[in-house]
Design brief:
Elements lengths: L30 H5 L4 H6 L1 H10 L6 E9 L2 E8 L2 E6 L7 E5 L4 E6 L4 E7 L2 E8 L2 H15 L3
Antiparallel strand pairs: 1-2, 2-3, 3-4, 5-6, 6-7
Length: 152
């Protein structure tokens, strides 16, 4: 005769207890909310880059805005997080990660109607983020950097 439903079955290990919830909830950096503003194609295409970004964010980081494009010719993500520009890509075996303060940063943007490129300058450091399909968000991203760079 089989045991009653819910009763332990001899020789079968019960499943482990559920893990406790993460501190700060499932999206402690607000990356999911920021990514929700991306077009569906950008979210789909940038899935791996957004995953890399989620891993490199520091505990206190709060993402204000995120873009998906290419960084050094490889799929990447750019984020404004807690007064910094964070650039990542999905280079196999060794993703690139750069974090630069927005204070004093310059930004130039170009677009051809379909894709945008942002060029960042901070001191002697220069970087580019290319192939941004969400051109309106790229303009907003550049404007936010300009505001933060001057302390406004």
């Amino acid at each position: 005769m089989p045991p009653p439903p819910g009763a332990p079955v001899p020789g079968v290990v019960p499943p482990p207890a559920a893990a406790p919830p993460l501190a700060g909830g499932p999206d402690p950096h607000g990356l999911g909310a920021a990514a929700s503003r991306l077009s569906s194609g950008a979210r789909k295409h940038g899935r791996a880059a957004l995953a890399v970004l989620s891993v490199v964010l520091e505990d206190a980081d709060v993402v204000e805005q995120v873009l998906v494009g290419t960084y050094h010719g490889v799929d990447g993500a750019a984020a404004l997080a807690s007064g910094n520009l964070v650039l990542v890509n999905v280079r196999e075996w060794q993703p690139e990660v750069v974090r630069v303060s927005l204070v004093g940063m310059g930004v130039q943007g170009t677009q051809d109607g379909r894709k945008a490129t942002l060029a960042f300058t901070s001191g002697a450091t220069q970087d580019r983020f290319d192939e941004v399909g969400d051109t309106a968000l790229a303009v907003e991203f550049a404007n936010r950097i300009r505001q933060r760079a001057t302390g406004a």
